[in-house]
Amino acid sequence: MDIAKYIDHTILKPTTLISDVEKVCNEAKEYGFAAVCIPPPFVKKAKELLAGSGVKTATVIGFPFGYSAIEAKLAEVVLALVDGADELDIVINLIALKNDDWQYLANEINHLMPVIKEKGKVIKIIIESGILTDEEIIKCCELYGAAGIDYLKTSTGYAEKGASVHAVELFKKHLPQQVQIKASGGIRDYAFAKELVEAGATRLGCSAGVAIVKGERGAEGY
To answer: Where is the catalytic site (predicted)?
Structure first.
């Protein structure tokens, strides 16, 4: 399977050190991960560390709760792009969703998408599937699928429930074929990572990337 190529090697804790960022970038290069996902203040540093490696630099917007104003998210997007981010993982406004304000969510994505797409960068939308109903997940698939995002992402890792095979299967069933799926939150071993990929995930956001790759090597006997 070569699980490494699916992994966004992630460190997003609020106490992240420069040494932590250096470590994940070095590991990403060593193991051939798809991207590193780091807090916005470290985008420029990660971009330097990953130069020439083929590993993408990803960061988060409106993280982890998603209830920042659209204008604030837009400012974060612009700064991340200026600093060199290749991929942006944006938390939707879950307050709007839970209050059934889908017009707000449509307005939010319509403000953020053009800025990112103009620069040819990748947009991943985080919906926190673990705290949504199936009906809410399906409505998100319809809204963001129609908007033309690159990935729909399950979770921030900060809610009480992270990625699940059920959510990935629901995404797969209700998203347009061209929209990819990123599973994240609570992916700590190869067995679960493999299940998620088999269910349809094309990216995995996890801080246990090295352990997962070693788990694959053990399972496959190499």
So the answer is: 89, 153, 182
